[in-house]
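Saturday, quiet lab. Running sequence design on the structure tokens for the scaffold JK sent over.
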């Protein structure tokens, strides 16, 4: 980038003027502003000046007649009626994209940032990239984006075997609280065969952020990751922005031809932030208190992940995404879980009973599926996993009778086979959080347990 280009980029960030307005009222989380009619639009960023002269950033989220409604990215302490609101006014091509933007660069890898692109790790300022990227962007054109790439090694045996994933696929991790979602995410961040990981912690408990980064993710995971954090005490706009910002960072790497892994924990807290915003702006609650805009916004976020635009040579960058869904009361049919499951390319269910029995990751393979499995595994591998699923299903159906001693060995050969082989399958599915298992090693382990012949190398897909 030449000096002239840098000067031009800097000048483009300078507003032609600054419009001032006044706060008329504050109700809950929303601020009503007079004086911005004809100047502001949805998504514009404004600055609110507190009584002591300090400032906080806010965003226009709605209008009522000639008054604008804004919500702050920070605390509203010290803000009252009559407080000054400043809106930078740009002209023509210099106008920024509504909803904010980030200057992402390769130097962000290994860093922890907030949703506004400010460093949180004490390692100094973030080197800006050459261009601004819109935080709220449209997904690639459905008819022009590439197809899914080859299957990707996730490093987790249960997922490699029963929910095999392709590059650019989007999966949901559905679980109640305390079932091991964060630990599974850290395993994926460390072990998945990708170029870079982007981790979004939306509404995370403040005390757990450092534990996740230092203990679960570890230095080796952080070295190839960008972590975007908004803790549970952050305003809803910041929690919402954590999801958008992480997706924008992943898009930056995808558009440079890289294979990016996007891990978001959790979509549920993203929807809760949207609910707070919608209710504060006067939107009526609909399904279980969620306003309609929440379910309109979900596909706009989730569809941004996936393959990028196909290039002339057929190559394309990919965003392989895994979104956690915190199911309330272990109800997997609650509105957010139901909506997300219908949008994504597969779902992985973590079961509390499996975790309580001591097997981690606590993935219920009978309730989990990946829609790309038939096309990315060989026929022999699909037959292997189908047989394992069938045995586990038979064992689950007869579990109570076996436990009570009501089943007599020899009554049903299929049940006898399940009793003999399922404990070995359970052993294969169990994995320590520091252990990595490749795709080939995962299928070899299952094949050994089921006592089947190895698959010839030339029929195994890449």
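Result came back. Writing it out in full:
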């Amino acid at each position: 980038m030449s000096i002239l280009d840098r000067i031009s980029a800097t000048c483009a960030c300078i507003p032609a003027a600054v419009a001032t307005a006044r706060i008329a009222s504050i109700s809950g989380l929303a601020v009503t502003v007079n004086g911005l009619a004809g100047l502001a639009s949805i998504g514009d960023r404004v600055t609110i000046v507190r009584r002591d002269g300090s400032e906080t950033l806010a965003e226009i989220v709605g209008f009522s007649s000639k008054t604008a409604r804004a919500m702050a990215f920070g605390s509203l302490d010290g803000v009252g009626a009559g407080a000054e609101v400043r809106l930078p006014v740009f002209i023509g091509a210099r106008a920024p994209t509504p909803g904010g933007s980030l200057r992402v660069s390769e130097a962000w890898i290994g860093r922890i940032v907030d949703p506004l692109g400010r460093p949180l790790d004490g390692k100094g300022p973030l080197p800006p990239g050459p261009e601004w990227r819109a935080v709220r962007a449209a997904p690639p054109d459905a008819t022009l984006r590439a197809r899914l790439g080859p299957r990707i090694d996730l490093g987790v045996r249960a997922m490699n075997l029963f929910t095999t994933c392709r590059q650019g696929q989007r999966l949901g991790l559905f679980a109640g609280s305390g079932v091991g979602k964060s630990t599974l995410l850290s395993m994926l961040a460390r072990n998945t065969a990708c170029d870079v990981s982007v981790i979004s912690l939306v509404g995370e408990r403040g005390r757990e952020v450092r534990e996740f980064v230092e203990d679960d993710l570890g230095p080796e995971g952080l070295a190839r990751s960008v972590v975007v954090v908004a803790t549970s005490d952050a305003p809803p706009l910041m929690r919402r922005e954590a999801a958008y910002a992480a997706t924008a960072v992943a898009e930056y790497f995808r558009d440079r031809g890289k294979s990016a892994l996007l891990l978001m924990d959790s979509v549920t807290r993203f929807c809760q932030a949207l609910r707070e915003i919608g209710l504060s702006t006067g939107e009526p609650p609909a399904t279980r208190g969620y306003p309609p805009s929440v379910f309109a916004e979900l596909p706009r976020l989730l569809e941004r992940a996936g393959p990028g635009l196909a290039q002339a040579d057929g190559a394309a960058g990919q965003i392989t995404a895994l979104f956690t869904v915190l199911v309330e009361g272990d109800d997997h049919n609650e509105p957010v879980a139901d909506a997300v499951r219908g949008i994504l390319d597969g779902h992985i269910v973590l079961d509390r009973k499996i975790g309580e029995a001591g097997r981690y990751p606590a993935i219920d393979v009978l309730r989990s599926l990946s829609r790309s499995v038939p096309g990315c595994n060989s026929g022999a591998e699909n037959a292997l996993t189908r047989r394992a699923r069938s045995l586990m299903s038979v064992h689950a159906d007869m579990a109570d009778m076996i436990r009570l001693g009501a089943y007599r060995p020899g009554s049903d050969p299929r049940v006898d086979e399940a009793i003999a082989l399922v404990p070995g399958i359970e052993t294969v599915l169990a994995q320590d959080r520091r252990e990595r298992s490749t795709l080939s090693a995962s299928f070899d382990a299952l094949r050994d347990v089921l006592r089947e012949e190895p698959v010839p190398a030339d029929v195994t897909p890449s």
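Notes for JK: The chain has a mean pLDDT of 90. The two ends are 38 Å apart (CA to CA). Ask whether to fix the surface positions before the next round.
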